[in-house]
């Protein structure tokens, strides 16, 4: 066993390097291998739609914007894994407010050891989920700085909710129950690391009398009212400040193309739906029943008053209201521009021409988007 004792310090050092080094390694890999690919896709989209813009992918993914988020995640991951490996090598855990919680001052070694055990498994769950998410976002050309902030905050939140839950559950000391209790505690801690918000929701429900149940959010403007948006899409859009349909309706198309992994066609469809939702709110479901999903559908076919009256009668809307909405959409230059962009994006002829031009470009160097778009 002496050889194992001699090997443990080296193993601990390797674990610290691997876990904490994972963060900067992925950031460097993203800039070297994936930024050029994302820039190529961005240029292809804006050229297909005929957009002139000076925005570049590197405006949203500059190296300077990653320094603080990467450092933050690096310190969180490195600090936690260092604490666990040092304790695992024989460091004596003493009574403190974090590990003892409400039992602070009693110097209860069982509570202290259980808390440390919970923290370790919560960190393992948080690291596994964050590593999976970072790699998935890396391969999807969508590794934004906020991902590293989320990874660090997930570890902190997971540790807090796992500890609080362990204090609520207490501890079992009876021989017949101790094994199943500790096994269950490990599973709960691991899940808290992977899904801290769900454990937090459980705690909120348990103590809901202390939490206001009132909500000021207009449910009709929820992103879930947009067809095609899932919980993952919603969370991704929230990362860039888009919390509801009104935010999405007024968002910059070029910014969304540059900062999200979604295709321009998909983004145009979502924005078109969001704009119509802002006009008609809960009545959107009635219009969808006859195939009108977005503001672009109201523009198609040059609908006159007779057609609008027939549509209103079919879905049970007031005719004047639908006419007002149609006139506002028709007179909105921003919507008309998006409508034209959608037409250009869906044109096979333009797509083939742009694909040929993009293939001839050299992406080993930074490309001036403005010059390329004008060309």
Keywords:
2 domains; 375 residues; single chain; mainly alpha; disordered C terminus
Structure commentary:
- This protein is mainly alpha-helical.
- The chain has helices spanning 2-49, 57-60, 64-88, 97-100, 109-139, 145-169, 175-194, 196-206, 231-239, 245-249, 253-259, 264-280, 284-288, 295-299, 305-315, 319-330, 333-345, 348-359, 369-374.
- The chain is elongated, with a radius of gyration of 27 Å.
Q: If you average the pLDDT, what whole number results?
A: 80
What ranges have pLDDT less than 50 throughout 5 or more consecutive residues? 363-375
| Beta-strand fraction estimate | under 5%
Report, as a whole number of angstroms, the end-to-end distance: 71 Å
Number of domains: 2
| Biggest pleated sheet | none
Number of helices: 19
Q: Give me the secondary-structure category.
A: mainly alpha
Rg from alpha-carbon coordinates: 27 Å
Number of strands: 0
How much helix is in the residues? over 70%
Annotate the secondary structure layout.
Elements (H helix, E strand, L loop, with lengths): L1 H48 L7 H4 L3 H25 L8 H4 L8 H31 L5 H25 L5 H20 L1 H11 L24 H9 L5 H5 L3 H7 L4 H17 L3 H5 L6 H5 L5 H11 L3 H12 L2 H13 L2 H12 L9 H6 L1
